[in-house]
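thoughts on these tokens:
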Amino acid sequence: MCKMNKTILATMAEVLLFTRETCGACATQREQNEGIEDAYPGVEFREVDIRTDLETAEEYGVGKTPTTLVSANGDQTDEFVGIVGRNELEAALERATRQSTGLAQRLTNIVRG
């Protein structure tokens, strides 16, 4: 498989955590998320401070923190406003991972011919 295809397939599931520096609930959410990246190595995790990256917050329509968005293949699959429990987030990640894996397999089949 060519390098470009590997890059595309590697970032098909994503979690965006929108925070603010002064947000106490955001610190709690970070604690809830500890170690989750290790359990989902195929998922890209990013944190966005809505005060320093207002453009991204506006792009996603986020105004409250913490807000967690989960997406697969570029499509939002789940949105959590406020603190999301670990089990809920893992369930959302499982759904997104299944969705992105399905697309990854179809793309691999296309590339291989």
Notes: The chain has one domain: 3-108.
